[in-house]
Amino acid sequence: MIRIRELYYRYEDGTEALQNVNIDMDRGKIVGVIGANGSGKSTLFLNIMGILKPTKGSIEYKDRPIEYTKRYLREYRKNVNIVFQNPEQQIFYSNVYDDIAFSLRNIGIDEKHVREKVMWALEQVDCLDLIDKPVHFLSYGQKKRIAIAGVLVMDSKVLLMDEPTSGLDPHMTKEIKDIILKISKDKNILISSHDMDLIYEICDYIYILNKGSVICQGEPQDVFLDGELLEQANLVKPWLVKIYENLHTPLFKDEEEFNSFSGKGII
Ligand SMILES: Nc1ncnc2c1ncn2[C@@H]1O[C@H](COP(=O)(O)OP(=O)(O)OP(=O)(O)O)[C@@H](O)[C@H]1O
Ligand SMILES: [Mg+2]
Q1: Quick one: DSSP state of residue 52?
Q2: Atom of ligand 1 nearest to the CA of 43
Q3: Model confidence pLDDT, tens digit, residues 186-196
Q4: For 76-93, how does the pLDDT look when each residue is reduced to its tens digit (9 = 90+)?
Q5: What is the DSSP string of 196-255?
Q6: Ligand nearest to the CA of residue 209, numbered in listed order
Q7: Are the CB atoms for 199 and 34 separated by under 8 Å?
Q8: If you measure from the C-alpha of residue 162 to the centroid of ligand 2, how many angstroms do you get, rounded to a whole number?
Q9: Which band of pLDDT confidence, cut at 50, 70 and 90, is reported for residue 36?
Q10: C-alpha 154 – ligand 1 centre gap (Å)
Q11: Which residues pair with 148 in a beta bridge?
Q12: Cβ distance 23 to 41 under 8 Å?
């Protein structure tokens, strides 16, 4: 649905943040973008949202380059939504309920359904108890979860998630992982993360960004076996790849697969 063609982006101060980036979201339901700090992930996501305009190249949506008129972008963003890396960029209202309700009220949904949807979304991220809380009292991890709830209520077909689990505890990271897997059944997801275990387990296809350029792409089981390349990009291997290489287990796709295997007493 979204294809990025020969994308270049230069910030006003001259920083060449993206160079000749080509990405095809139809490579999988969940596509990952990984790379060290400053490699260009957030810049890429902001370009896809039409918040930044490419210096060169294009973002194609349904086989046509996106346009930068207010009208086009308003429609486009009904279908393409983002969880920003920084939750402060996402949260506008002073209390949790109004913040999540905002986008629903904006498209004219009646208050009874707004309430139902908001409660459902808060339940998904384990935050129902925060419903009346002023946003400025929330912890960072709670803000992050509220930001995710805010996009879950919308029916966008494409969801960009820029480091959705950063700052979350292990339990919540696992919950968000399950949510992503669940919603990927009817959404296409582009996710960036520094959590290589998460990326390895949930992505169908990944791109490695290094200093603004894609240096590798492929299925996680292939990309994460290339130690030299990962080192070049300052990335590490997921634990399942490490045990495969060091303990000569099969290459498990996720923890469940590992558990069912080790449960048989083979490891
Ligand atoms: N507003 C800006 N003006 C100038 N340079 C910027 C601006 N925002 C980002 N950059 C630079 O663009 C490059 C890419 O930054 P970006 O935030 O896209 O990286 P990232 O991969 O998301 O990093 P992180 O993992 O830390 O989130 C970096 O060199 C950064 O310093
Ligand atoms: Mg970033």
Answers
A1: S
A2: 18
A3: 899 999 999 99
A4: 999 999 999 999 888 877
A5: HHHHHHH-SEEEEEETTEEEEEE-HHHHTT-HHHHHHTT----HHHHHHHHH-----SSH
A6: 1
A7: yes
A8: 7
A9: very high
A10: 28
A11: none
A12: no
